[in-house]
Amino acid sequence: MKKSVRALRMERQQKRMSQTSKLSLVSLMDIFTILVFFLMMNTSEVQVLQTHKSVKLPESHADTSAQETLLLMVNEKDIILQGQKLADVATVLASGEEIIAALDSELQYQANRTLALASDTSGDSAERAITIMGDRSIPYELLKKLMQTCANAGYSNISLAVEQLQPPSVESVAEAG
Known about the structure:
Blueprint: H1 5-18, H2 25-42, E1 59-60, E2 70-74, E3 78-81, E4 84-88, H3 89-94, H4 101-117, E5 129-134, H5 140-152, E6 157-160, E7 163-164, H6 170-176
Parallel strand pairs: 1-7, 2-5, 5-6
Antiparallel strand pairs: 2-3, 3-4
Helix pairs in contact: 4-5
C-alpha cells in the first residue's frame, strides 16, 4: 500500500527526532576559558576598608592603595583596635601621658601573636604596619598620641586612611586654566 505524503513526512520527522543529540564541549570550554581570562585581567587590586558609620574619613588624592594591616579606628568617643574597644577619647585627651597604655599593651600583644603565627621567625619590627582610620574631626593632639604609641610598640609603618577623591580629568583642568 502506498503511503500518503503526510505519513512519509511524519516518518521522516520521527527519524529525525529519535536521533540522539550531540553536545559540543569544545565551544563551551572556549567560552569558559575566555571568561576566566577576562575575570583575571579585570580584577582590581583596590582594597576597600570597611568604615564605621561613626567615622567620617578625610578626603585626599591618595596615590597608594590600602594594605591589609592592623586597623586602628578612632571616632569621636572610642579608640578601637581590630574591633575591640580599648579606651575613651575623652580619657586619653585628659591624661597628660604621651603613650596610651591600653593601646600600647594591645599592640605588643598583636606583635607577639603575629610573630608566633609566622612560619619564619625573622619578623623584623620594621615590617610591622598599622592603619589609623581616624574621624576627620579628631584633634591633632590625639593623633599625635596614637602615632607615638604605635611607634613605641614597634609599628613604624603607619598609614592614615582617607577617602580617595577622583583626580581631576584632563578636560576639567584645561577648562579651568
